[in-house]
Design goal:
Strand content: 15-25%
Order of helices and strands: HEEEHEEHH
Strand order of the largest sheet: 1-2-3-5-4
Radius of gyration: 13 Å
CATH class: Alpha Beta
Number of strands: 5
Low-confidence stretches: none
CATH topology: Yope Regulator, Chain: A
CATH superfamily: YgaC/TfoX-N like chaperone
Number of domains: 1
Largest sheet: 5 strands, antiparallel
Distance between the termini: 33 Å
CATH architecture: 2-Layer Sandwich
Mean pLDDT: 95
Length: 108
């Protein structure tokens, strides 16, 4: 997917989640409690934030990797493969799980 296709898809997914909304113009993201928990990088890839334990589980489960942005590994973020990104049920569950995770962190 290119950046624009990813952005459209991201907006569709976030619109189905009523506890949070997409923010940002040049770098679309979601955040809560002062913590960002999902975003799109300039390459049009999508990453979601999880606890270290859950991050490791998902990398194996999704046959994925750590999420990169601006040539750096984004600590705590999992790169979401395109086939997973296209699955509404799975993506909404992952977004809500990530939201719950950042809600459990101390407020910034």
């Amino acid at each position: 997917m290119n950046y624009q296709e990813t952005l459209i898809r991201y907006d569709e997914l976030v619109a189905q989640c009523d506890r949070f909304e997409r923010k940002g113009k040049s770098m679309p993201y979601t955040s809560s409690n002062g913590h960002m928990f999902s975003f799109i990088n300039k390459a049009g890839e999508f990453g979601i934030r999880f606890s270290k334990e859950r991050q490791e589980e998902l990398i194996k489960e999704l046959n994925s990797d750590y999420f990169h942005s601006h040539n750096a590994v984004m600590k705590g973020y999992v790169l979401i493969p395109e086939e997973v990104f296209m699955n509404d049920k799975t993506m909404i569950a992952l977004l809500n799980e990530s939201y719950e995770y950042v809600e459990s962190l101390p407020e910034k």
